[in-house]
Every structure is written in structure tokens, then in C-alpha cells.
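Re: weekly structure request thread

Next one in the queue (342 aa):
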Amino acid sequence: MPIHLIWGDDYEACNREIEEIIQKVLDPVWKSFNHSQIDGNDPKQNFRALEEVQSAPLGNGGRVVLVRRSPFCNGCSIELANKLEQTLKLIPDNTHLILNNINKPDKRLKTTKLIQNSIQSNPISKEISFILPLPWDVNGQRNLVKNILNRFNIKMNQKTIDLVVESLGNDSSLINTEIQKLRLLSEAVNKNSNTKEPQEISEELVKKLVQNNSTNALEIANFLLKDEKIIALEKIQTLLKNGEPALRLIATLTGQARGWLWVHLLDSQGHSDVKEIATLAGIANPKRIFVIRKQIQGKSLEALLELMKKLLKIEVSIKSGTNPINSFKDNLLTESKFLTNN
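Done, posted below.
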């Protein structure tokens, strides 16, 4: 009775893991008969999922029952918990139950303990998490880029990785897409090369394809810093209409705001060495510190914190399914007493 507990806010990585299980278990010819996707927000569908996992697959291959937004490890009714306990004993060996949720399983729940005990008793079963690094966790973002590079058998030096982090932030899906583009472009440039060594993506190539995409976003960030919200929103709307991914835009804005916040905080604590500040703030190029200092001159720490909070709220709103332009408007147009020169 294989059970796969997959959780975390890295949607790209979670979906990739789920797709790998599906491709491994299902016979493509019989997929329409043996693959079910359940919405865990619907109590009736959760009971249906527990009924379906008791069925052996039709034809060749196995069966997969996928429960998105699974409630089993994060709070469910007593009736559903009792049904799960009964069902775990009845799942056939070639039927796989995939439970997916953004939240970490609550280990205090009886259902979580039942599922984790089942996972531990079956070598095919597994619990795996994919957590995005926080917007200010630069090392975590670097590791995220490195993991994606390893998956595509691509190399980058540390300076180039930092350039990707500064341009794309912690958006796993966007980083994955851009690195695939970089790989294809690199292959086109080096099409006559017969080497089987991992490709190395140059800093110049990243600047050409990735960093240029964030230029307008950095301009918008400067308007937000000056509290020129209407101009910023007009430019945001233009970018979105021209096909700029909303999450890429917010990642760039958040990355810029994070740099402002860290430099202001470190300056206020008496740090003066630009190399030290760059290291502590996770900024690859120490020369940027001089630029940032000039940008934030006259801004209070409260103002920068307020802007960062708004950008993080926008990111959460977009990821929750709100129309991106509405997310920007609703949060940026909220009055703040801090975004003024001091």
C-alpha cells in the first residue's frame, strides 16, 4: 500500500515529484482508467479518494489517486479519520495514494501518525518536502538554483549563480523555466561541441537572457521607494499586459526591497565596511552598497519594513489565485504613514 506524502510551498518541485510518480506507476494506455485527482477541499471527494484507493488497477501498470490540498495531516473530521484508518489496511500493493498539501503535517494528529507509520513500514512509500527559501534567505536561494542546475546537468560559477538569485529571487518555477532557456541557448551557441561534460552557463549569457528581464521591475522598485505608487502601478500594469510573469515581477521587487532593508539595518548598527555589509546582506557585488545607500537616503527603517510587508502580501495574494494587478492595487494603495522622507 504505497503512500506518498508530499508537502511544501515549492509548487514546481512538488508537481515535478508527483509527475515522476505518475509516469513511473501508470501505463499510458490505461492512464484514463487508473489516474484520479481529488480536491481535498471537498469533504465528499476525500471519502471518494479513500474508496478509490481500495480498487486494484485495470489493465497493465498501477493506479494513482492524487489528493491535492489533502486534509489528512492538517485536520479532518472524525468520520474521515476513521475511514482513513480502515482504508490503510485495504490499499492494494500496486495502488499509490499521493497526499499533497502546502502545509507541514501536524504530527500531533492521529491521522498523521497513521500515515507516517504506514510510510515507515513500506520501502516504496515516502514523505518528502519542498520548501522555498524565504525572500531574505540568500544562501537558501543559492542552493535552490544549484539544485535546479544539478538536475539539468548544468554548471555555473558562484558569481553567475548570485546573478540569477538577484534577478529571479526564490521563484522555483521561474528559475526552472529560465535555466531551461539558458540551457537551450547555450546548446545553440555550442552546437559544434562534442563534449559530454556538464554545460557551463556564462555570466554574459545570464545577463543577456535573465537580467534584462528585470530591468523594468527595478525601475518600478525605485518608484515604489519614492512612494510614487500611481506611476509604479501604471508600469506594473503595462509589464503584466506585455506578458511579464507576475511572480517574476514580485520576486524582483522583493529582492530589491530586501537589499534596501538589510543595508539600512546594517548601517544603523554601525557596520561601515562595504564588503562586510555585502556579505551579511547576501549582495554579490559590494559596489552595489554605494548605490543602495544613495537610493535609501532619507528613508526610515519603518518605511522600508512597510514596503517589504506589502510586497510579501502581494506575493501571497498572487499565489492564492488573486488577479495580479488587483493584488498590486489592493496592497500598494493602502495608506502608510512611513513612506515619507525623514
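The mean pLDDT is 86. The longest strand covers residues 95-101.
Next request, please.
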